[in-house]
Here is the input.
Amino acid sequence: MAFFRAHPRLTKAIEAALVLTTIGLCAWAVVDQWHKAGPRLAHAKPGFVAAAFVTVAVYYLVFILGWIRMLAAWRRSCSLSPVGTPHASSCIRRQ
Here is the structure.
């Protein structure tokens, strides 16, 4: 970790490369799967597609809120700080 703190420009460049790679791979996967789903979606009812998207969004919201409540019950506090800062992405026990 000391190396990355000593070289912040390199750290940012690596982070940017990883983010761009991740976005590129996600875009490639979505396009690939979208082409496979195209014939099925051509006959899908828009209401059902919208309901599916809303269902997945609500599921993830409940999942995240559930973890927040569990961590609070365990007296844990988690933060997502930038890499290179003290306590980056750490969970600490509150007194």
Summary: The mean pLDDT is 85. The chain has two domains: 1-43, 45-95. Residues 45-95 form one domain. The longest helix spans residues 8-42.
